[in-house]
């Protein structure tokens, strides 16, 4: 079932837009939960862990992030061109509110100079390709929270002018989704590393003292933290346990502490992104 879920998740990777990748990440989260439960209860065999590693290794959410931003750029250009040719369709834009003083009537839409719309295309493309796109570095397999926060701030401080009006309507939340891609890649990397740790335990009867002991016998190369590109933090613990974690979106080592919201949910913006197991007896 997990193998099928992972295949389905990867099958829709060619869907270009951001919403498609958000769906993929939700699908992956459901599959990863079952992977975690099997590892926590020591239910996976070595052969099954090898197959899970093979399937998980194909996921590259850093590259997917960049593909999604390029698709969003193509979408905003196409939308702007559509409105230039069909000015009566402004009210169909999501976020357009005719009662908002910053919006305008259909009559005004028909007399908007084409130059204004070309300037919106330019500014939207520069924001997407020069500010958002570099947040994901495929060569280093990293996603930068610092650059993401700077991008969000630059958008929030962008003035609403004739040259930015469509940017403000079409691109309001893109920077806020970057952490989803980072978390998805971190989860994949943590899962692959945890699988290699379980393979080591099956062979040696205990977890290793360091992650360096895993490669190349139990995994070809130990995945790193997509936040910063450094190795994951790892500590073997008593009772046949370990703690493995990414520094998370705040880029700070909180010692493996998970931050919670007031509602008791995991706060992905603070604390570490942690992979660990409850103290359960072996089956």
Explain the overall architecture.
This protein is mainly alpha-helical. The chain is built from nine helices and seven strands, in the order H-H-H-H-H-H-E-E-H-H-H-E-E-E-E-E. The strands form three sheets. The chain has a three-stranded antiparallel beta sheet with strand order 3-4-7, covered by helices on one side. Strand 5 and strand 6 (266-271) form a beta hairpin. Helix 1 runs antiparallel to helix 2 (18-40). The longest helix is centred in the C-terminal third of the chain and has 27 residues, at 178-204.
Summarize the structure.
49% of the residues lie in helices and 10% in strands. The chain contains 9 helices and 7 strands, in the order H-H-H-H-H-H-E-E-H-H-H-E-E-E-E-E.
Shape designation: elongated
Radius of gyration: 23 Å
Count the DSSP helices.
9
Q: Describe the biggest sheet?
A: 3 strands, antiparallel
Give start-end ranges of low-pLDDT stretches: none
Helicity level, as a percent range? Answer: 40-55%
List how many beta strands DSSP finds.
Answer: 7
pLDDT averaged residue by residue: 91
Strand order of the largest sheet: 3-4-7
Notable characteristics:
9 helices; mainly alpha; two-stranded antiparallel ribbon; three-stranded antiparallel sheet; 283 residues
Task: Please describe the topology of this protein.
Elements: H1 2-11, H2 18-40, H3 46-56, H4 61-85, H5 106-111, H6 114-132, E1 136-137, E2 142-143, H7 145-156, H8 165-170, H9 178-204, E3 233-237, E4 241-246, E5 258-260, E6 266-271, E7 273-276
Antiparallel strand pairs: 1-2, 3-4, 4-7, 5-6
Helix pairs in contact: 1-2, 2-9, 3-9, 4-6, 4-9
């Amino acid at each position: 079932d997990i193998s099928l879920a992972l295949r389905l998740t990867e099958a829709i990777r060619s869907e270009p837009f951001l919403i498609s990748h958000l769906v993929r990440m939700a699908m992956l989260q459901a599959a990863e939960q079952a992977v975690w439960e099997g590892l926590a209860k020591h239910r996976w065999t070595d052969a099954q862990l090898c197959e899970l590693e093979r399937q998980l290794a194909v996921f590259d959410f850093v590259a997917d992030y960049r593909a999604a931003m390029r698709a969003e750029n193509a979408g905003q250009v196409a939308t702007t061109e559509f409105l230039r040719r069909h000015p009566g369709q402004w009210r169909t834009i999501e976020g357009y509110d005719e009662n908002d003083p910053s919006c305008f009537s259909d009559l005004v839409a028909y007399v908007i100079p084409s130059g204004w719309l070309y300037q919106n295309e330019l500014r939207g493309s520069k924001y997407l390709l020069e500010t958002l796109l570099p947040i994901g570095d495929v060569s280093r397999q990293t996603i930068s929270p610092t650059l993401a926060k700077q991008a969000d701030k630059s958008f929030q401080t962008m003035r609403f002018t004739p040259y930015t009006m469509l940017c403000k309507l079409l691109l309001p939340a893109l920077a806020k989704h970057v952490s989803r891609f980072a978390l998805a890649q971190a989860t994949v990397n943590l899962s692959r590393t945890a699988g290699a740790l379980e393979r080591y335990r099956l062979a040696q009867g205990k977890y290793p003292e360091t992650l360096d002991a895993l490669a190349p016998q139990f995994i070809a190369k130990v995945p790193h933290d997509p936040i910063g590109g450094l190795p994951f933090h790892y500590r073997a613990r008593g009772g046949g346990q370990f703690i493995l974690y990414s520094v998370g979106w705040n880029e700070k080592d909180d010692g493996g502490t998970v931050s919670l919201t007031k509602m008791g949910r995991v706060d992905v913006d603070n604390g570490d992104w942690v992979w660990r197991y409850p103290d359960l007896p072996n089956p």
